Amino acid sequence: MSAVQGLEMLAAVRPMPGGRVFNFSAGPAAMPLEVLEQLRQDLLDLNGSGIGILEHSHRGPVFDALLAESHAAFMRVAGAGKDWAGLFIPGGATLQFGMLPMNFLPEGGHADYADTGLWTTKAIADAKMVGKVNLTFDGKSCAFSRTPRADEAAPSKGAAYHHWCSNNTVDGTKWSVMPTAADGAWLARDASSDIFAEPLDLSGHGFVYAAAQKNLGPSGMTMVLIRRDLLEKSCRTLPSMLRYDEYEKGESRPNTPNTFGIHVVGLMCRWIEKQGGVKAMERLAAERSDIVLKAIDDSGGFWKAHAERWCQSPINVLFRGPSAAIDAAFVIEAAAHGMDGLAGHRSTGGIRASMYNAMPVAGARALADFMRDFARRRG
Fold it and tell me: What is the pLDDT of residues 151-193, one digit of tens each?
């Protein structure tokens, strides 16, 4: 999309009463209104300190308390015990594509990777700059329309770890069965788009990471869960900003951290708890996606889903109409009806409805109703 097209689409967006729209963007994504209102207050005065969150020293007592609260909330929602360290790391999930193998892919060794979409393809490319990679699944052969079945993606002997991305935002697919790691190895999960949209299963894992801008708020932040026994096992001598143990020793402050982002993650985690926790988030994700998928099924073939249904993501629903021109018209008309961010990724086209934790069920209903109306008028 060109800058001019983007401005034209923005001009077409018709806000709902109250000035808000249903934001279906894949990230940065929708956030709860109550969290945004709290942030608006905290920008001016954090916890009655007379100083806003953007102004507080990262070493001062006010931020010390905030950091502890945000960390504790994240670990509670993750269900991670004392065997796990939770780290706030800058750079987004993409930094982890290189940081993970730099720490744990030894010289002469190899790691297993399942390629299920754009972001795993990028992770594999970065890992190959560090060492050898064995593909346990190559989704390019099916245009990334599905994830591996239970009998696929077998680990290879001697692999250091097995990397997988549990939910693929670009193609709208999700693993139906968690992969396994080789004997003596562990799983490394990219949970960027489904972190806390379901209970977090840490079994078999040594490492989980997630960009924050889907379910936890701010872009540029990454949450990392790492087993404590791995913290001291980096296979290379690396600069401090690339070592996980340095983040743990410094309480995620090896340098001046993203203080605002850390605060937002804490607020988002406490909001999730207030809604009923990750099980409630999982139920809502299923309800929203079922509403949109039914609109696809009811269209008589006008709408077609990209992903095979058995591995359909409950968070990112990718679909398309009879032509690219129809898809473009739908996105523009939807914006005029208070639904923004529906254009598919530039690599796939089509239409993508990203429905993260903060998306109300009413948003899914509004989209489904408009899909039916549009198909009736254009079919």
Answer: 899 999 999 999 999 999 999 999 999 999 999 999 999 999 9
DSSP 282: H
Q: Which domain holds residue 281?
A: 276-378
The answer to whether residues 114 and 71 belong to one domain is: yes
Do 193 and 171 meet the contact criterion of CB atoms below 8 Å apart?
no
Query: Distance (Å, rounded) from C-alpha 114 to C-alpha 163?
Result: 6
**Of 275, 300, 333, which residue constitutes the final position of a domain?**
275
Q: For residue 2, is it within any domain? A: no
Question: Is 61 among the domain residues?
Answer: yes
Distance of CA 322 to the CA centre of its chain: 29
CA 47-50-55 angle, to 5 degrees, is 90
Question: Distance between CA atoms of 277 and 260, rounded to whole angstroms?
Answer: 23
Instruction: Write the pLDDT tens digit of every residue in 341-368.
Output: 999 999 899 999 999 999 999 999 999 9
Q: Is the pLDDT of residue 85 over 80?
A: yes
Cα(230)–Cα(234) distance, rounded to whole angstroms?
Answer: 7
262 plus 153 within the same structural domain: yes
Domain end marker among 275, 290, 310: 275
Three-state secondary structure call for residue 231: coil
pTM: 0.93
pLDDT, mean over the chain: 95
Residue 15 has pLDDT above 90, yes or no: no
pLDDT of residue 7: 47
How many Å separate Cα 327 from the centre of its chain?
Answer: 24
> Is 368 in the same domain as 270?
no
Do 199 and 213 share a structural domain?
A: yes
- Report if residue 18 sits inside a domain: no
What amino acid positions are annotated as catalytic residues?
A: 119, 190, 214
Spatial separation of the C-alpha atoms in residues 31 and 24, rounded to whole Å: 11
C-beta atoms surrounding 129 within 10 Å: 11
In this structure, the strands spanning 161-165 and 110-115 are: parallel
Both 54 and 199 in one domain: the answer is: yes
Structural domains counted in the chain: 2
The whole-angstrom separation of Cα 198 and Cα 201 is: 9
